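Recall from the previous lesson that a structure prediction takes nothing but the amino acid sequence as input. Here we apply that procedure to Glycosyltransferase, MGT family from Rhodococcus triatomae. The sequence below is the only information supplied.
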Amino acid sequence: MQSVLLCSAPLTGHVQPMLAIGRRLVESGTDVTILTGRKFRERAERSGIRFQPLPSTCDYDESRLDDHFPGRGRRPAFLRSRFDAEHMFAAPLAEQYRAIDEAIDAFDVDLVLAENLFMGTLPLVERPVSDRPKVFAVCTSPLMATSVDTAPFGPGLPPAASGLRKTVNGLLNTGARKLVLRRAQQVADAGTRSVTGRGAATFLLDWPLLADKVFVLTTPGFEYPRSDIGDRLSFVGPILPPAPADSAVPPWWTRLDTDRPVVLVTQGTLDNDDLSRLIEPTIDALAGQDVLIVATTGGRPVDAVRRNAPNLIVSEFVPFDLLLPRVDVMVTNGGWGGVHFALAHGVPIVVAGSTEDKAEVGARLERAGAGLRIRSGRPSSAVLGRAIDEVISNSHYRSRAEELQRELGELDSLDAISRQVDARTT
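The prediction returns the following tokens.
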């Protein structure tokens, strides 16, 4: 029986796609183990996946990040991303690598399948091919790898459109490595040296390019073209969880039977501690307008929304598979999964986010023409109102979203990945 080890940082948006891959592989008769945070043990075992916990030194609960990483929440978006690169992703590298190595020996692993922010894979891919299992990388976020055609990952700068722009991006990439992420790279080098005796052979965000295969969880129409690394990338489409089999429509569902545009606003399940950042100003912008507002709190109690309006519905959770076919525009802070849920249903989007990878998601959406990007994580109601009105009234955005919907509909990520796993481990 083939043996596959899945590796993921203990973040829901990264673990969920890996569990979905694992479930598909289990169904095909593969022995699957996942190395990740203890919070995900039950979900893994319920899927028939063996669970291997990360060492406590590199495990954390995403709902209490400020407890694990003091001072993180006080940093503005740019500095928070730099902090995360150093403390959340680079610092655990050595302990993650040792855990991978132990799991490879314990479970006689044929293939390691790791998401792109699991930096413990970096020392592994640097080993000779004869001295390690095959390694596949899964990009569960916008592609972070360095290219001559793109600016450094983070601020959401556009890709190169000319030779001059490539030169500028080259300088910016050098600056990112040597200045902005210098400390994170030093931490990655030190971690790699502690387990291999030498520093990292590549920039920490570029480790997937050393893997035997790189899966990008989107369509080429939503990513930037990269002339220098494109042949190493397999675009397989997103991995979106289906609606629960027992999903029941809420009592307010009949209110969706309306001729008014329906606007969905969400801050996802992670960056939703402060609903005044996006949900409340969206409500302020649309209260009294000829639209129906559906606000989902991502698990927060509905009374956490301190607004009320006759055209407003507030709910903790609504299965997107059921809701999105009824939605005219989605307003979001730019989570990778949520944006792809909307595009998979042909729904245009307004993105307003600045933390984690959200500026990059917004930049890609804007370039794809399937919505508008607001360059703020805390936009005013006036700015939101204008953006939402533009997306509703201009059919171009809906047309582009539907084109991406067709592209995504032609891709089956789980099938593509499982076929490659079978081909490489048989």
